[in-house]
Amino acid sequence: MSDREFAGFDAEIVADVVRQPPLSQLRRAAWVRRRRRVTGVGLAVVLALGGTVSVPLVGDGGVVDRTGVSPTGLPGGPRVARELVVLSARSAVVVEDPGDGCRLSFTATSDAGQTWSERRTNHLDGPCRADAQGFRTSAVRFNVLDEQRYLVSVDGSQFVSSDAGRTWRSLASVVTEVRAFPENARLVRCQETCGATSQALAVDPSTWRVYRLVDAPQVGGPDTVDQAGDGALWHMSPGPEPGAPASAARSVDRGATWHTSTLPGGVWAKSLVAVSAQEAYVLCQPMPSGPNGEPAGPARLLHTTDGGRSWTDLDASLPSSDSVRGITIGAGGALLVGHSTSTSVTSSVWISRDGGRRFTRSARTGNEGWLGMSRGLVWMADREDPPDASSTVVQVSVDGVNWSRLTLPR
């Protein structure tokens, strides 16, 4: 806000009269808004091959932003904010913020929720800032790199755990900077927001080493980077100003060099999915009709088969959305798109089996349900009252048609 002074306005009087609602009410309201806003790509996280997701959470003081691989907000009671990160049909991580200091706790499953690991809380060196009322003002963010590796940032200081949260070290002490990712390293994909870092990271599942790409495009938005089945890396960047054409960059040498092309103008590029070094899709929305207007027309799906030199605008018959949404390639090559709007109380999954030319709705959540997407899968969550973990039902699908249950921790 500017430093202008307004006659008749006394900040001290207003502060005495206007009281902040109880934190439990704020958490509840933020949770409902978040579920309506996020299409969830299991949507939520850094740059990942295994798929990740993350959703900004409003915590103490309203400044906590949590990001992860496939996160979506879960109801966690009046004192605990929870995020779900779906990594595969059988593995997931739940991140909890008890609202006490700058601590986060992590628990993971590899058997679709039949068992969950012991909750482990990060104990990080350094001060945790709070205001005069005791509300946290430190910016706490996270990324889930895989089932065992978590990255947490507190006011810009980065810490990583490679043993499911048992021990923590500074990121600088464990990350290896490279000009090209090793062949076996899996890219950490930023699906919804990039929390603890905006740099390209990858994890080698055989050695559990973490790599950071030097001179790589910044991870600046939802679903901006993807890795194709043949190892090619794709990156999407928005235009320099609203309405300006976005760009797509492609690397066939694990990030050592990038070749950039310009996407058609007049659209808002939202998410990217890579098929190969030559083929990729970009899901777009038409620009809104006004500053606060709805998208001016249906969604658009751009497709390239020549490495980005040219793009075809497919008539995909997808509804437009003013919310974050994701796209991925499921089993059998099916294109899966998550859909929700800021005003709807349901979310839905759209599927195409003809290369994006025609989409049909394959599944929909109940009222106040929400969905998320990770690489190669989509998941839906529905809840019953009261809104706690025991009443939330999560189902995961790799094809948008057949669904399996993921049981959440108590």
- Radius of gyration, in Å, reads 21 Å
In the CATH hierarchy, the architecture is 7 Propeller
CATH class bucket: Mainly Beta
- Sheet-strand content, in percent, reads 25-35%
What distance separates the N and C termini? 42 Å
Specify the overall morphology: globular
Task: Explain how this protein is built.
With 410 residues, the chain is mainly beta. The protein is built from three helices and 30 strands. The strands form seven sheets. Strands 1-12-13-14-11 form a five-stranded mixed sheet. Strands 2-3-4-5-6 form a five-stranded antiparallel sheet. Strands 7-8-9-10 form a four-stranded antiparallel sheet. The chain starts with 10 loop residues before the first helix and ends with a strand. The longest helix has 15 residues, at 23-37. β4 (92-97) and β5 (105-109) form a beta hairpin. The chain has a single domain (22-125, 135-406), classed as 7 Propeller (Methylamine Dehydrogenase, Chain H), CATH 2.130.10. It is globular, with a radius of gyration of 21 Å.
List the helices and strands and how they pair.
Layout: H1 11-17, H2 23-37, E1 47-48, E2 71-74, E3 81-86, E4 92-97, E5 105-109, E6 120-121, E7 140-144, E8 150-154, E9 157-161, E10 169-170, H3 171-174, E11 175-178, E12 186-189, E13 201-204, E14 209-213, E15 225-227, E16 233-237, E17 247-251, E18 259-262, E19 267-274, E20 280-286, E21 300-304, E22 312-314, E23 327-329, E24 335-339, E25 348-352, E26 360-364, E27 370-374, E28 377-383, E29 392-397, E30 404-406
